[in-house]
Design a protein that fits this description.
Elements: E1 3-7, E2 23-34, E3 41-55, H1 61-72, E4 77-84, E5 87-97, E6 102-110, H2 119-133, E7 138-144, H3 148-156, E8 160-165, H4 173-176, E9 180-186
Parallel strand pairs: 6-7
Antiparallel strand pairs: 1-4, 2-3, 4-5, 5-6, 7-9, 8-9
Length: 188
C-alpha cells in the first residue's frame, strides 16, 4: 500500500477526471460588513448551514487549462499527482506569480475516499518547499466562504487569512454567502 506523490505527466491528464473532489460541510464562514467607504470593516465568523452541503466541486476551467499547460511544460508552475495502488487519488496545480514573489495554489483536490490521510498536507508542503527553493516569499490560495473545509485546511497548514473580495464572482456574493477569501503562507 504505497502512496506516491509525483509530478503530473501529459499522459496522466486523461485519467485525472475521476478524482472526486466533493465538498461536505455543515458550516460556512459568514461575512458581515459594517461602515462605508474607507471606514468599512468586515467580520468573519463560523456559522452552521441550514442543511449539510454536498457539492461535487468540479474542477474549474482555469485549473484544467493550467494543469495541461504546466504538465506539458508550456507554463511555469507545479502539477502534482498522488497515486495509491495505481489509482489517482489527489491532484494539485499551482502557478508561479513572479510579479508577487509567490506561487498560487489554483486547485487541490483529494478523492473523497482518500481524505484525512495527510495527502493534501503533503502536497501543500511540497509547494511550500518548491517556493522556498525558487526564492519566493509566499504561497497563496483562494477559497470561498462556503468551502469551510478548505479554510480549515489552509489554516492548519499555516496559511493566514489576508483579505476578501465580496464581488469577485457576482455582485451578490455577500448575500449568497460565497465571498472569496485570500490566504497566504509567508516564507520570510
Amino acid at each position: 500500500m504505497v502512496m506516491q506523490i509525483r509530478p503530473i505527466r501529459p499522459a496522466d491528464l486523461d485519467r485525472l477526471i475521476d478524482i472526486d473532489g466533493t465538498i461536505e460541510s455543515s458550516q460556512y464562514l459568514h461575512v458581515d460588513r459594517t461602515g462605508e467607504g474607507l471606514c468599512a470593516t468586515w467580520k468573519i465568523e463560523e456559522r452552521p448551514l441550514r442543511e449539510k452541503r454536498m457539492d461535487r466541486n468540479a474542477p474549474g476551467d482555469e485549473g484544467e487549462f493550467l494543469l495541461k499547460q504546466v504538465a506539458s511544460g508550456a507554463e511555469e508552475g507545479l502539477a502534482l499527482l498522488a497515486e495509491h495502488e495505481e489509482v489517482n487519488v489527489a491532484v494539485l496545480v499551482a502557478r508561479e506569480e513572479p510579479q508577487y514573489g509567490a506561487i498560487r495554489v489554483v486547485d487541490l483536490r483529494v478523492d473523497f475516499e482518500h481524505r484525512r490521510q495527510g495527502l493534501g498536507s503533503a502536497m501543500i508542503y511540497q509547494v511550500i518547499s518548491e517556493a522556498r527553493a525558487r526564492g519566493l516569499r509566499a504561497v497563496s490560495a483562494e477559497t470561498k466562504t462556503d468551502n469551510y473545509p478548505a479554510a480549515n485546511f489552509l489554516t492548519k497548514c499555516g496559511f493566514d487569512l489576508a483579505g476578501l473580495d465580496t464581488r469577485r464572482h457576482t455582485n451578490h456574493d455577500l448575500v449568497k454567502e460565497a465571498v472569496t477569501l485570500f490566504w497566504y503562507a509567508s516564507l520570510d
